[in-house]
Amino acid sequence: MDTQGDKTDPQLQQFIEIESQKQRFQQLVHQMTEVCWEKCMDKPGPKLDSRTEVCFINCVERFIDTSQFILNRLEQTQRTRGSFSETIAD
Amino acid sequence: HRLLYLFIYFYKTDPQLQQFIEIESQKQRFQQLVHQMTEVCWEKCMDKPGPKLDSRTEVCFINCVERFIDTSQFILNRLEQTQRTRGSFSETIAD
C-alpha cells in the first residue's frame, strides 16, 4: 500500500481498517434490509408478525448462503474457463 | 493515500472538524433514508395513483415507516447474531 511503509502510522492504518469494516457491515445491513423487506413484507401492518420475522431470519441466512455459493461458483468458473474476465463487458 | 492519512489526522485531532463531519454525515444519512423509504413505501402502499392521497394509503405509509425501521433493527440484530455463530462470514460477502 505504501512504499515507505516505515513512515505509515500503524494506528492510523488500524483506524482505517476498522472504519472500513464498520462501513462494509452497515452497507450489508442496508442491502439485506431492502432485499428481505422486498421478499418478506406484504402490506405493512401495525406490527411485525411472527411469520414475517421467520421470513426475515430465513432471508438473512439464505442471502449469506447465496453469496458464498456464488463466490464458490465464480472461482470454479474462473478455473475452468481461464481468463473469462475479458468476455465480461466492463 | 497520503491525502487520506492527512485528512484522518486532522479529523482525529480537531474536534470542530469531527463535529462538522458528524453533522453532515447525519444529514446525508437522513436524506438517503427519506429517499429509500419513499421508494419502498410507495411500492408497498400505492395502488393506482388517484386525485389525492386517501386515508387508507396514508395509514399504510405510517405502518410502512414504522415497520421498515423495525425491520432494519431486526436484520441488524440477526446479522450480528449470525456473525457470532458463523464466524468470519464477512469475507464471503462480495465487496
TrEMBL record, chain A:
<keyword id="KW-0862">Zinc</keyword>
<keyword id="KW-0479">Metal-binding</keyword>
<dbReference type="GO" id="GO:0015031">
    <property type="term" value="P:protein transport"/>
</dbReference>
<comment type="similarity">
    <text>Belongs to the small Tim family.</text>
</comment>
<comment type="function">
    <text>Mitochondrial intermembrane chaperone that participates in the import and insertion of some multi-pass transmembrane proteins into the mitochondrial inner membrane. Also required for the transfer of beta-barrel precursors from the TOM complex to the sorting and assembly machinery (SAM complex) of the outer membrane. Acts as a chaperone-like protein that protects the hydrophobic precursors from aggregation and guide them through the mitochondrial intermembrane space.</text>
</comment>
<keyword id="KW-0472">Membrane</keyword>
<dbReference type="InterPro" id="IPR004217">
    <property type="entry name" value="Tim10-like"/>
</dbReference>
<dbReference type="GO" id="GO:0005743">
    <property type="term" value="C:mitochondrial inner membrane"/>
</dbReference>
<protein>
    <recommendedName>
        <fullName>Mitochondrial import inner membrane translocase subunit</fullName>
    </recommendedName>
</protein>
<comment type="subunit">
    <text>Heterohexamer; composed of 3 copies of TIMM8A and 3 copies of TIMM13, named soluble 70 kDa complex. Associates with the TIM22 complex, whose core is composed of TIMM22.</text>
</comment>
<keyword id="KW-0999">Mitochondrion inner membrane</keyword>
<dbReference type="Pfam" id="PF02953">
    <property type="entry name" value="zf-Tim10_DDP"/>
</dbReference>
<keyword id="KW-0496">Mitochondrion</keyword>
<keyword id="KW-1015">Disulfide bond</keyword>
<feature type="domain" description="Tim10-like">
    <location>
        <begin position="14"/>
        <end position="76"/>
    </location>
</feature>
<dbReference type="GO" id="GO:0046872">
    <property type="term" value="F:metal ion binding"/>
</dbReference>
<keyword id="KW-0653">Protein transport</keyword>
<dbReference type="GO" id="GO:0072655">
    <property type="term" value="P:establishment of protein localization to mitochondrion"/>
</dbReference>
<dbReference type="InterPro" id="IPR035427">
    <property type="entry name" value="Tim10-like_dom_sf"/>
</dbReference>
<keyword id="KW-0143">Chaperone</keyword>
<keyword id="KW-0811">Translocation</keyword>
<keyword id="KW-0813">Transport</keyword>
UniProtKB/TrEMBL annotation, chain B:
<comment type="function">
    <text>Mitochondrial intermembrane chaperone that participates in the import and insertion of some multi-pass transmembrane proteins into the mitochondrial inner membrane. Also required for the transfer of beta-barrel precursors from the TOM complex to the sorting and assembly machinery (SAM complex) of the outer membrane. Acts as a chaperone-like protein that protects the hydrophobic precursors from aggregation and guide them through the mitochondrial intermembrane space.</text>
</comment>
<comment type="similarity">
    <text>Belongs to the small Tim family.</text>
</comment>
<keyword id="KW-0811">Translocation</keyword>
<keyword id="KW-0472">Membrane</keyword>
<comment type="subunit">
    <text>Heterohexamer; composed of 3 copies of TIMM8A and 3 copies of TIMM13, named soluble 70 kDa complex. Associates with the TIM22 complex, whose core is composed of TIMM22.</text>
</comment>
<keyword id="KW-0479">Metal-binding</keyword>
<keyword id="KW-0999">Mitochondrion inner membrane</keyword>
<keyword id="KW-1015">Disulfide bond</keyword>
<dbReference type="GO" id="GO:0072655">
    <property type="term" value="P:establishment of protein localization to mitochondrion"/>
</dbReference>
<keyword id="KW-0653">Protein transport</keyword>
<dbReference type="InterPro" id="IPR035427">
    <property type="entry name" value="Tim10-like_dom_sf"/>
</dbReference>
<keyword id="KW-0143">Chaperone</keyword>
<feature type="domain" description="Tim10-like">
    <location>
        <begin position="19"/>
        <end position="81"/>
    </location>
</feature>
<dbReference type="GO" id="GO:0005743">
    <property type="term" value="C:mitochondrial inner membrane"/>
</dbReference>
<keyword id="KW-0862">Zinc</keyword>
<dbReference type="InterPro" id="IPR004217">
    <property type="entry name" value="Tim10-like"/>
</dbReference>
<dbReference type="GO" id="GO:0015031">
    <property type="term" value="P:protein transport"/>
</dbReference>
<dbReference type="Pfam" id="PF02953">
    <property type="entry name" value="zf-Tim10_DDP"/>
</dbReference>
<protein>
    <recommendedName>
        <fullName>Mitochondrial import inner membrane translocase subunit</fullName>
    </recommendedName>
</protein>
<keyword id="KW-0496">Mitochondrion</keyword>
<dbReference type="GO" id="GO:0046872">
    <property type="term" value="F:metal ion binding"/>
</dbReference>
<keyword id="KW-0813">Transport</keyword>
